[in-house]
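Q: What does the assembled structure look like for these inputs?
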Amino acid sequence: MPTAVILLRDIARLPGIEFATYDDATVTTSYGVVTAGTFSPSESSSLHEGFKIVKGAVDFVSAFAYEVSQHRNFERELSGLSTKVAY
Amino acid sequence: MKERVRGEKFAEHWNQAQLFYNSMSEIEKLHMVNAFSFELSHCDDPTVYVSAIPRINDIDHELAKKVAENVGGPIPDAPSRPNHGRSTIRLSQFEFMPKTPSIKSRRIAILVADGFDLPTVETFRVAMKAGGATTWMIGPRRNKIYGAGQTPGKDEGLAMDHHFESQRSTMFDALFIPGGAEHARTLASNGRVIHWILEAFGHLKTIGALGECQFFN
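A:
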């Protein structure tokens, strides 16, 4: 289990989110929370060439950038998840 | 007797409001329910919220019922006038999203502590910069923070832009948390960091996290 993922899942306890479970480059995106074990080797070497911001991207940076480009994850609010956290 | 009077359509006050409401997306309608409810809940005099509900019912019956239930006003049995059901373009804010997704000008906060994955952070920052976003290093002190394997005083470390207490998630569009066992333990034991994460989550912001090893074992 990726370390920062443990932080989100077990410490912050973000509700209703699906997290990455492998310590590799497999990306999981759930209600605007993007997690993975690591960058893929090809991703690390190609990022200087730029990346595409597209929905459903399989590399971490593209998936993260797509979610940021949507401004907010409104599905999180419509699903009631945002009202379950205290801050 | 000749009269200079307004045309009949000036006596109609509700069609445009209905058109606007009908044109909203599901989340925008929810925000309107919440906004009406928030404001009217602050009105202690029942005269205010009791008389506001019928006016909202003039626009949309479902909207009025939800607001009435939230603020303790009389729940209307029926619409006071039929909703014409028409909607139009260029009213919902979602119609103004860029055709090509972009992260230009977005501010990304990167939360770190000593022992973080420095190479990953450097790669991530290059990528975000290429996309036109800015990244901001947030750590336990506004000073050098050292990556995993680095030695203070010997290695460069990375300068922070802010420490956890001197900035807030509300000033950023997204959070990124890299991996690193010692760094993750430090973040996990810091209540302000947890607050950063929960506040960003509650505000529907993107949160990204990476990591390579388990530390709870």
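The radius of gyration of chain B is 26 Å.
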